[in-house]
């Protein structure tokens, strides 16, 4: 039927196909569009936090600067 000389090659192809199938099955739920959406949401959250922090921090910096000038 199949020459035993090719058993190693057949095994390699089968295991490779299984590995690719598992890789695709694990990659599909976190495909790039979902990763990009999560990264954009995280960037927006950090930008909002940074804007709030700079608004609060600027008054603090002015108070310190004003205290140094006296």
Automatic annotation (TrEMBL):
Stretches that traverse the bilayer: 6-30
Regions of compositional bias (Basic and acidic residues) in chain numbering: 60-70
Residue ranges of the region described as Disordered: 46-70
Keyword Transmembrane (UniProt): yes
UniProt keyword terms in alphabetical order: Membrane, Transmembrane, Transmembrane helix
Protein name in the entry: Uncharacterized protein
Lineage of the species this protein comes from: Bacteria, Pseudomonadati, Pseudomonadota, Alphaproteobacteria, Sphingomonadales
């Amino acid at each position: 039927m199949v020459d035993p000389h090719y058993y190693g090659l057949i095994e390699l192809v089968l295991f490779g196909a299984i590995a690719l199938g598992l890789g695709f099955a694990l990659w599909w739920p976190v495909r790039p569009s979902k990763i990009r959406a999560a990264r954009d949401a995280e960037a927006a959250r950090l930008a909002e936090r940074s804007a709030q922090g700079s608004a609060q921090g600027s008054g603090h910096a002015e108070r310190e600067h004003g205290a140094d000038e006296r």
